[in-house]
Amino acid sequence: IVDLMADPRNVGAARESIQKTRDKSAIIVPLLVGHNIIGSLAVVNGRYSRVFNQEDVNIVTTMANQASLAIRNGQLYKAAQEADRLKSIFLASMSHELRTPLNSIIGFTGIILQELAGPLNREQMKQMGMVRGSAHHLLDLINDVLDISKIEAGQLQVSQESCNVHEIVAKVLQSLTPDAEKKGLALTAVLTPHSTEISSDKRRVEQILINLVNNGIKFTDRGTVQVQTKVQDDWLLVKVIDTGIGIKEKDIEKLFNPFQQIETGLNRVHEGTGLGLSICQRLVHLLGGEISVVSEWGMGSTFSFILPL
User: Fold this and answer.
1) Residues 105/135, Cβ–Cβ less than 8 Å
2) Cβ contacts of residue 218 below 8 Å, gap of 6+?
3) DSSP codes joined into one string, the chain
4) Mean pLDDT across the stretch 69-87?
5) pTM here?
6) Is the dihedral of CA 242, 177, 102, 91 positive or negative?
7) Is the dihedral of CA 173, 177, 180, 185 positive or negative?
8) Are strands 300-308 and 290-296 parallel, antiparallel or unpaired?
9) pLDDT at 241
10) CA gap 82, 223 in Å, rounded
């Protein structure tokens, strides 16, 4: 619009406004997403006698296109966030419905394996053992997905209670020793000289340690997996050290991303969802601590986390 006061399209409230502001000329460009107009970009000249020309129109049009793109990206990002939040809430609320059938399968196969319902031959024992093992594996995967969903949905609550660190380590090592022995690994611990108590969520501390030790066993073919504990000032330092395959420097930054696994493709030999370390990191943060990793390819890894006493 070269002359706002003379343009016949300028009527009603708009004309009354211009009479007050004494604006001279204007460019108005639609904000387009596809073929849909979501708004407009208006540039008004109210100070100078110069009027806008086609070069000015081209510049404002370019600005409008960039603004439209930014607005659309913002809308898509907001929609994606909402979809992710709803997904997390759905999975978190489905925990009971997903776990109950699997626990029933595990329970009933256990009864059959005890031969309480009648004797089994060797092949039947083998097949039922495979069913129970697969059900346990599936339950572990579901638990990981549900835990990460609960954390993302803000539904995972941590408690504070007195926890004996020596007892937690002993319990974790006892539960994972059979897995280590199957691979011929030494599973050891070097603990603080005196029994250490911390105020934290005992179940979640155990979960963090189980994930880290289990990872150490999974990625170590020979040697040791060792748990070390130490008190530094007002913090408990826990290290899980293995002599496994290690991690390449370029892959370390990916470790704590959800659903991220270093091995990909057809050559992957280690099972899992890629959620264990992401869950560990988020649980450690919820408990007020930090987690880190130092590793050398082919030489093993050390995962360390600190928790407030």
Assistant:
1) yes
2) 270, 272
3) ---TTT-TT--THHHHHHHHH---EEEEEEEEETTEEEEEEEEEE-S-S----HHHHHHHHHHHHHHHHHHHHHHHHHHHHHHHHHHHHHHHHTHHHHHHHHHHHHHHHHHHHTTTTS---HHHHHHHHHHHHHHHHHHHHHHHHHHHHHHHTT------EEEEHHHHHHHHHHHHHHHHHHTT-EEEEE--SS--EEEE-HHHHHHHHHHHHHHHHHT-SSSEEEEEEEEETTEEEEEEEE-SS---HHHHTTTTSTT--SS-GGG--S-S-S-HHHHHHHHHHHTT-EEEEEEETTTEEEEEEEEE-
4) 81
5) 0.58
6) negative
7) positive
8) antiparallel
9) 92
10) 46
Distance CA 294, CA 292 (A): 7
Residue 184 falls in which region: left (phi positive, over 0), alpha (psi -120 to 50) or beta: left
What amino acid is encoded at 72 in this protein?
R
The pair of three-digit structure tokens given for residue 279, joined into one six-digit string: 């869950």
224 contacts 306 by C-beta, under 8 angstroms: no
Under the banding of pLDDT at 50, 70 and 90, the label for residue 282 is confident
Instruction: Please tell me the predicted confidence (pLDDT) of residue 256.
Output: 73
Structure tokens at 274: 């890629």
- pLDDT tens for 165-178 read 999 999 889 888 88
CA distance 24 to 50: 9
